[in-house]
Design a protein that fits this description.
about 290 residues; alpha/beta; Spermidine Synthase, Chain: A, domain 2; Rossmann fold; 2 domains; 13 strands; about 30% helix; globular; binds S-adenosylmethionine; PABS
């Protein structure tokens, strides 16, 4: 639920969490009702541009780096040599840009169901789309659930599920059938990573996701908490699942010598994200 109030604050009221979050806005820039969802754009006074999908905050200019870097670099540096990457969702193209910073990645295929999200991002977040024309990138518009169901077995090294909450078109990205498709499409040792909501506000959903990933046969899981200032509670997470093998650290040396810039991610941040807070550990161990 959201409303643009007379005093020019955009407020996302999160009924399920009993909380709300506001950003002061200058003006509304755009609104398109796509066949899948309502996509709105605002210009804020302090966070740059802001994308809202079906009333939920998605991306702002000022802070999207936390999310996009944590959705990409931990998984890519945990894999020994990722060459073929698939992004499900991710239509704002911020995750795509981060993945393409890895010079040894050979192909990245992004499948978002809604072309309107990418059209809006091209217009209002051009910096996130600056790598869309990289020859290694393929940007498609289709249902990611169907794409994964039909993907060739053992053809992908890293799958990044950068989807919306488990409502609307994103609902089917959170169940056993989808995780089975992902497992089948990964090569041995391959890694799937999915945004897994707020550990503080949505622990039952996070536990369901982890259980489902284990049930379908992923060998090992890591849930990485990270700050996400504009999402409910400000604390968010991504869960990584590995096919056939335990996680075995990450390529620290390669992070240190990486020839690209990040705003948040580094070796220390990756180590910190692997240190599970006690309230999460207790919930996972139950
Ligand atoms: N990074 C931001 C975040 O997590 O809030 C933005 C996420 S946004 C890019 C999530 C994307 O998932 C949307 O563009 C939406 O169209 C897409 N999506 C939802 N369900 C999908 C599905 N079944 N297949 C492919 N993409 C889907």
């Amino acid at each position: 639920m959201s409303n643009l109030e007379a005093n020019r604050w955009f407020t996302e009221i999160s009924d399920r969490d009993g909380s709300a979050f506001s950003l002061r806005i200058n003006k509304k820039l755009d609104e398109i009702q796509s066949p899948f969802q309502k996509v709105e754009m605002f210009e804020t006074t302090d966070f740059g541009n802001l994308m809202i999908i079906d009333g939920c905050t998605m991306v702002s200019t000022r802070e999207n780096f936390f999310y996009h870097e944590m959705m990409s670099h931990p998984a890519l540096f945990s894999h020994p040599a990722p060459k073929n990457v698939v992004i499900i969702g991710g239509g704002d193209c911020g995750t795509l840009r981060e993945v393409l910073k890895h010079p040894d990645v050979e192909t990245v295929t992004q499948i978002d169901i809604d072309e309107v999200v990418t059209q809006m991002s091209l217009k209002y977040f051009p910096e996130l789309c600056e790598s869309n024309n990289d020859p290694r990138a393929t940007v498609m518009f289709d249902d990611g659930i169907k794409y994964m169901r039909e993907a060739a077995p053992e053809s992908i090294d890293v799958i990044i599920v950068d989807g919306t909450d488990p409502v609307g078109p994103g609902e089917g990205l959170f169940n056993h059938a989808f995780y089975t498709s992902c497992l089948n499409a990964l090569r041995p040792g391959g890694i799937m990573i999915q945004q897994s909501e707020s550990p503080l506000m949505h622990m039952p959903l996070l536990l369901e996701m982890r259980d489902a990933m284990k049930d379908v046969g992923f060998a090992d899981l890591q849930t990485l908490p990270f700050p996400q200032p504009i999402y409910p509670s400000g604390l968010w997470s991504a869960t990584m699942a590995r096919k056939g093998e335990q996680f075995d650290g990450f390529r620290e040396q390669d992070v240190e010598t990486a020839n690209f810039d990040t705003e948040y991610y580094n070796v220390g941040i990756h180590h910190g994200a692997l240190a599970t807070p006690n309230f999460m550990k207790r919930a996972f161990d139950k």
